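User: Hi! I'm working on a homework problem where we have to compare a predicted structure to a textbook description. Could you give me the structure for the chain below?
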Amino acid sequence: MPPEMHPARKWLVAARTFALPASIMPVVFGTTAAATQGGAAFHPGLFAAALLAMVLLHTGANMLSDVTDFRKGLDREATPASGSIVRGLLSDAQVRRGAILLLVAGSAIGLGLALRIGWPLFWIGVIGVAIGIGYTLGPALKYRALGDLAVFLDFGILGALGAWTVQTGQPSWRPALWAVPMSLLVIGILHANNWRDIATDRERAGIRTVASLLGDRGSLLYYGALVFGPFIIVTALAAVGIARPDAACGMPWPALLVWLALPLALRLWDKARKRKAPAHPTDFVALDGATAQLNLAFGLLCTAGFILDRLL
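Assistant: Happy to help. Predicted structure tokens:
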């Protein structure tokens, strides 16, 4: 990228906006589920605040992760998903300060919501922020093969649960269960990144990820489960909803709209299988960004299914 790039664009690169669907979709889905299945009246202001808090926290955590990876020597070569440090657009110190600012701002908004909604939301937020910071700092979950679990919780389960609680005032296990399919796709985004970086993680810093533990072949099978598993889970939950309409765990049958995203999942699987001889040089390198697109499509279709069920 040219050095004369506008400062705002440099920070957009640092923010890794391609990954934001991972934090946006749980809030959108959890809010929709609360309004359509939880009997809540939709509060647009609260939704906007929850969404902004989640995006700020996600971006701050991503930037903090970039700083740590750069300082550990893990990220030295630019990829389609690289941040601004490795590209030479911003210094690691600048990105670190930006990350702290975003994390503080997101936490402040979350605290404001918790003061209005109550203690359950406060503890959901505390756990989420702790996982987000611990992903890179302290226990450094991402370096101990716990990164997959961390993003599963933060950018899936807790995101949807928090959004539901913001709208209804009370937590419930239902949005947490319904968010599992999208949470698996978020893991898929991270796994695609870690799979690509197996050699780098082992050679430069001895980093352990689920991908490095599984190896190349195991990572392919794991990726397939993460990409196709969500379709099976939604189908099973929708089947429960059809067979037993009174079952709390059942999804509304229009959620089966997610199958419209299957062609995209199949294209990703083809790219993953052909990783050693890709049709295009960036097919495997940019698999994480492509998986983020699947996560967005799948999440929007599932959300649309909940809305359609309410309208029928």
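For your comparison, note the following. The chain is about 70% helix and 0% strand. Residues 7-311 form one domain. Good luck with the assignment!
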